[in-house]
UniProtKB/TrEMBL annotation:
Residues 17-159 form the Transposase IS701-like DDE domain. InterPro entries: IS701-like_DDE_dom. This is Transposase. It holds the Pfam family DDE_5.
């Protein structure tokens, strides 16, 4: 599939996360994702990329199930590109939050009921996979408000794995090691309060909402 020069330049910056064959599949899937008008399944992206009948669709599934690439490596390459283009100096403004990918099948890994901010009704619950997201907040010339560029993520496993706060702290640690000489300001909502933010290096700050039971002395 042919992609625009601008998109091709962005994807080339991520080549280092993949082998040559896997990078070719990655480019096809990205192009298909952007072109697909229906559900963005792997098969849907394969069809939208114009590969149906030309290359076996299993190649797209192997990209996620078997190909050797690391999501953190990919995310940090994307972050380096974003920093170079949008935040070459000053503090890096990071935001931690979570998003729920609704899934209802009984055999879906790590799917359970939890808070869903977009849910209708009073219970505010949804069932699916919850991903903790870390993004870089940047200013772009054509929008007055800040824009968040997601770069790292963690699938939350509920009681079977680290808490969302611990996952957020781990991702901030990755960014801190990748940019050892930059100030980093992290923002998260009340869900991300926790002891893991204590003893941060002086160049890293974390801002969140105070608990209702707390008061400033």
């Amino acid at each position: 599939m042919t992609v625009s020069d601008g998109l091709s330049e962005v994807l080339e910056a991520l080549r280092g996360a993949f082998t040559a064959p896997t990078f070719a599949t990655f480019k096809d899937l990205v192009g298909g994702m952007l072109s697909a008008t229906g559900e963005h399944t792997v098969t849907g992206m394969w069809i939208a990329a114009g590969l149906a009948g030309r290359a076996h669709w299993a190649r797209g599934h192997r990209f996620f199930a078997q190909a050797k690439w690391d999501a953190d490596h990919l995310g940090l390459l994307l972050l380096r590109l974003a920093v170079r283009l949008f935040a070459p100096d000053g503090a890096l403004r990071l935001v931690v939050d979570e998003t729920l990918f609704l899934r209802y099948g009984k055999n879906v890994h790590a799917a359970f009921y939890q808070h869903d901010g977009s849910a209708n009704g009073r219970d505010g619950l949804g069932r699916g996979n919850s991903f903790v997201i870390l993004g870089l907040a940047v200013s772009v010339p054509f929008i007055q408000r800040a824009v968040l560029l997601p770069v790292l993520l963690r699938l939350n496993l509920g009681k079977d794995g680290p808490s969302k706060v611990e996952q957020a702290r781990a991702m901030v640690g990755l960014v801190a090691r990748a940019f050892p000489h930059r100030r980093i300001d992290v923002v998260g909502d009340a869900l991300y309060r926790g002891k893991v933010w204590r003893d941060l290096p002086e160049r890293i700050t974390f801002t969140t909402r105070l608990a209702r039971a707390r008061s400033c002395q």
